[in-house]
Amino acid sequence: MSIYTNQEMAMLYDASKCTACKGCQVACKQWNVLYTDLGMNAFPFSGSYQNPVDLNGSNRLVMTFSEKKTDTLERPIEWAFGRRSCFHCSNAGCVSVCPTGALSYQDNGVVSVQEEKCIGCHYCEMACPFDVPKYYGPDQKIDKCTMCWDRLENGMLPACVKTCQPGALHFGPREEMIALGKKRVEFLKARGYDKAELYGENECGGLHILQVCKYGAEAQGLKKGVEPSALVSLSKLAQPAAGLAAAATVAGLAVSFVAALGYRRKNRTVEEAKVHWTEAQRKEGAKLVKERLKEDAEQDKADNAGK
Ligand code: SF4
Ligand code: SF4
Ligand code: SF4
Question: Fewer CB within 10 A of the terminal residue: the chain, N end or C end?
Fold first, then answer.
C-alpha cells in the first residue's frame, strides 16, 4: 500500500506539451522487461514516425503521430501527437468478459493483469472498445499496460511518467488530474486552439488515463462517448457456463498474487523471442550467428598462435 494505491488515481497526458520523443515508450519497455525485435529491423519504415504501428505483444505503449493539413503556407502540417495504451476504464469491457478473473479492478482505478490466470481466450480483445489487449508467446497470454503497479505499490511513479522530460505526463488523484486537464484546456482555448478538450472524464464510466487533446480528440484518433462493446452484455448471459469451464481451468493454476498485479515480464530468452520472428528474420539471425561463431573461432586461433 502506498499513496499511489490507497485512493483513486489517474494519469494525465497533455498532448500540447508532448514533443513525441518516445522516451515514455522506451521507459515502458525497459521497466517492464519487454523484448524487442528491432535488432533485426523487424519494423520497416511504414511511412509514419509512429513505430511500431500499433500495440503488440511486446509494446504496451505507442506514441501516435497524426498529421493535420492547415491552410497556412508557413506551417502546412500540424502534428497531433497522441498516446495509445490501456485507458484503465472504470467500466472495463475486458474485466466484464474475462472468464478466469485474470483482469480485475484495483481500488485506485488500475485494471490489473494476473498473467498466470490468463488462458489465452482472447475475449478481452473483443470486449475492449479501444482494441488494447494484445498477446504474446505460444500460450497467447494477454499483454497490456498495468500502470506499472509494481512501481505504484512501492511509492514510485509509473515509468513513463517518471521519464517524461517536458512534463507532458502527470500522475495523481483523479479529481486533481481532471481539474488540471480542464485548466490546461482553458489555457489552450485562450490561445486560439478552439477544439482543445479533455478526453476520458466520462468514457466507459471514466478513464484513468486522461488526455488533453490540443486539436480535439478526433485529431488524435480518439472516439468520444465510447462504451464497452456489445459483447459484454452477451457474455453476461453466457457467464454461468463460462464460469464453470473457467473454474476448472483456474483450479489447476498455481497463482502468484505478487507477480499478478503489476506483472513484469520474466526475462525472455532469444529462443522464446524467436517465436515471433518472420522467416526472413530467422534466416538473418542464423546468418549473423554463423558469422559471429566464425569470427570467434578465428580470434581463438589467432590468440592461440600468439601464445
Ligand atoms: S516522454 Fe513525454 S514528451 Fe516524450 S513522447 Fe512521452 S509523453 Fe511525449
Ligand atoms: S482500455 Fe480496454 S483493456 Fe484497458 S481497461 Fe479499458 S477495456 Fe480493458
Ligand atoms: S504506466 Fe507503465 S506499463 Fe503503462 S504505459 Fe506507462 S510505463 Fe508502460
Answer: C
